[in-house]
Amino acid sequence: MPAIVITDRDVFVAMIVAIFVFVVVVVAVASLGMRLLRAARQIEVAGSRLNGDAMQEIESLRQRVAYLENRLPSQAISDPDEPEDALYGRATRLLSQGLAPDEVADRLGLSRAEIDLIAVLQRAPSLRGREGAPTS
Q1: N or C, fewer C-beta in 10 Å, the chain?
Q2: pLDDT tens across 25-35, in order?
């Protein structure tokens, strides 16, 4: 088997190639690191935007809930389990006291159509005694 002879020139070329490969690897790693830093910054910025948007949306929803709670009549909030018959009885009493149908609907959380029906039934005494009609 022939002997392998390595000359000084071969060692020099191998060292140059090794240095070149090392420099290429260092540049590639540095480039990758810079890309990772840029991506991390973009993620951070996007996250803060999303967080800010989410916080604004939450605050907007809180304000909307507060507004809607203020618009609900206090009676409807205080006793949500009140049976419908009792609500209709209260509507009948409020209408007989002279409150406007819109105000009765707002106070009791009933529709205007329900209040109008109660008002019609109130004006027709012959219908009051029938089954299913509200009585006072």
Answers
A1: N
A2: 999 999 999 99
